[in-house]
Amino acid sequence: MDNLELQKTANEVRKGIVTAVYSAKSGHPGGSLSAADIYTYLYFEEMNIDPKDPKKAGRDRLVVSKGHTSPGYYSALANRGFFPVEDLKTFRHVGSYLQGHPDMKHIPGVDMSSGSLGQGISAAVGMAISAKLSGDDYRVYTLVGDGEIQEGQVWEAAMLAGHRKLDNLVVIVDNNNLQIDGAIDEVNSPYPIDKKFEAFNFHVINVDGHDFDSLRAAFEGARQRKGMPTAIIAKTVKGKGVSYMENQASWHGVAPNEEQYKIAMEELEKAGEALCQK
């Protein structure tokens, strides 16, 4: 898929995010929107997956360690064909399989239940070790938040990944610089993020998380690097694509009202139309 098609797809993923959170009257739009381009690249370009066979043994795995960004995760899965896009409107409703946090037992395409921050990366490291022990060639990806890496367990997992030379593991940090209480460097600064991962024996790549050329080069670089895991530090904008949500910590975990929903969808529609003119 070329970059223009990826941009169009990412715009559809963003529409799904806004629709899901609005329909639920709850959820986490900010970090879902910042990661939308990452989700899109993973599911439409990078990962070896098959929506018709979600449990295929040799598939690549994604663990969404920052599980509260499930609207972005679900929208990418739906747009990739794992389940109907229409089902995004049932997000967080009683009886819906699309729960607030990813559930591997009920959602096609979800490889690991997650939501307790800091823990998903440990599961991803375990999966990567399993592949090495079994001689399998699938790759494991995990998406963590920059606020999430304040958790100690993240670094325990990173230590093991570096020690075991897990070159089949890619950790993507969604570095939008905001968490629920404000700017991450004011709450509990994890900077410099790249130097920390380097200290744990990771190959580190800094990228613009909204630029598909940069993402493409980063993931290709991760595939080529042997003998060590890769950390992709993706600089992103929280709320990306919806003007009034961008760079606003207040949109970490708040749903838009009807008027705000209409504005957001109008903006995304216009963005989609502009892409179609290219």
TrEMBL record:
This is Transketolase. Its cofactor is thiamine diphosphate. It comes from Sellimonas intestinalis. GO terms for molecular function: metal ion binding; transferase activity. Belongs to the transketolase family. Keywords: Metal-binding, Thiamine pyrophosphate, Transferase. Residues 8-263 form the Transketolase N-terminal domain. SUPFAM superfamilies: Thiamin diphosphate-binding fold (THDP-binding). It comes from the Bacteria.
